[in-house]
Amino acid sequence: MSQPFRLGVSYTSTVWPDICIDFRDDHLLLQANAPLDAMSSALWGGGHMRATHFINWKVPLTYRCEDPTLMMRDQLTEWGYPVADSIGLQTAAKITHASIEEEAGDRYRMICCATAGTRNSARAGKARETFSAYRCGTINIFLLMDAYLTPSAMINGIITATEAKAAALQDTGIVDEDGDAATGTTTDSIVLASSQNREYGEPHQFAGAATTLGNAIGRLVYKAVHEAIDTQGEA
Fold this sequence. Notes:
By secondary structure, the protein is α+β, with helices and mostly antiparallel strands. It contains 3 helices and 11 strands; from the N terminus they run ββββαβββββαββα.
């Protein structure tokens, strides 16, 4: 079991103590001591930016999605977080059941935090009913690492993480509305953030499954998503 918020409210990484994760009633806050270089599909702060605060907000039942970006900004302000240095995701999944995996290896220290709910599971690559309106993220993955990566390696890492998420869904038996193996849900999101620590020397140029970095990404994401899915129905 690697779900610290089922019993506690704060977690400090054992491999990279600069990263703390706190449970704050309706959201998780992952906080770094110094800005990290991030790429993400986040609602707030998405794309490529530097950030110190990474938030996974469990939206209330009264949530209205006419302007989710404005809602996220207002919520960050209410919490007192630095809006310009924050990346925010939204979810309907249980944040108390967030799963954390971490390790240190070949020029990296890495932490993965994932939350998962699979009621809107889907299989990418097939025709289905689609919507233009925004809906909250359901499988949210945060990958924070002390490492030095090229921009292409960061994107490669996101690909590897997504493949690992799909593998976890398949191995837990999650299917779409037609009974086909799901590759995700309709509203997933991911953040990959790196310290870009030059003390490691040459950067990682690749992060595919055959590299030390990519293999770690895949294993940590797989284990975290697998556990979050397995326990989503537990109290």
